[in-house]
Amino acid sequence: MTEERPSLLAKLMKLLGLLVLATALLAMAFHAPDRPLESLISRWAEAPSDFVELPVEGGRIQLVHLRDEGPRDDPTPIVLLHGTAASLHTWAGWVSELKTNRRVITLDLPGFGLTGPSVLGDYSDEAYDHFLQAFLAHLKLGQVVLGGNSLGGGVAWGYAARHPEQVAALVLVDAGNLAITSEAVPEGFKVPQSRVLRALASTFLPRPLVERSVKSVYGDPSKVTAALVDRYFELTLREGNRAALAQRLAQRMPGRFADLLARIQAPTLILWGGQDRLIPPAAARIFQQQIRNSRLEIFPTLGHVPQEEDPLSTVRPVQAFLHSL
Length: 325
Known about the structure:
Elements: H1 4-30, H2 38-44, E1 49-55, E2 61-69, E3 78-81, H3 92-98, E4 104-107, H4 125-138, E5 144-150, H5 151-162, E6 167-175, H6 187-190, H7 195-201, H8 207-216, H9 226-236, H10 241-251, E7 268-273, H11 282-290, E8 294-299, H12 306-309, H13 311-324
Parallel strand pairs: 3-4, 3-5, 5-6, 6-7, 7-8
Antiparallel strand pairs: 1-2, 2-4
Helix pairs in contact: 3-13, 4-5, 8-9
């Protein structure tokens, strides 16, 4: 009996030691502190990227990452807004097709990409509306064709309803801000909802978690490349972005402004991925029903970010829509 106890204790101590070692190795593998903006610019702000200093409320300045491409004499530029945890890069395929004949402006919204956290700490729908109004005024843009995906789509249709004189046409791509139940939520979106995980996420970020989150919004996960995961991973690490994501998810109130849909006057093109499980196609039909002058096209095999998953197929109806205007 006396010999068995030391033996059992020795085994337990050995197991504890292995657990401590494994924890230390995992911590080293997933240690991902914030990265300053300067360290990300060379890779993610290549030409024609630019930064503008945008005056916002209280005399503060919001640094905004944008790309302004195509002919500057376009009387109605196209402005495209990305979704949650994304960046202006999501529109690259569309821009390469559109910029030959149209001026196309893409930007990183406050809280995401290289723009980083809002200097006001406000990620409400009203705050994004005020930001977009200030941004368009700063670039001296009158009427625009306004497009958006997910969060950006929600910002876009809200803006079109509140400022009809500025929006000549509207393009909604798997747009957000309706009270629709998701069939599946990316794992990365669940982290900010837990206080413990949120605290850990400020220092640790497993790249496999980012990879699974990106794959979950694609209709065909095999299209997700290592380079694509690198982009999402590294831009999430931009200083302040993880805290901003938690704040945005806490401040969002889907469905709050649904009554504004009937006020939209702009001709509207609605594009949707048939395999979108974050915002299912049922939402697309609500938009089509509520927006009077609208048309809907669903891509059966694509997911939540169809403009990124298959830019060539999804930009064609956009080009036809713009030509019809």
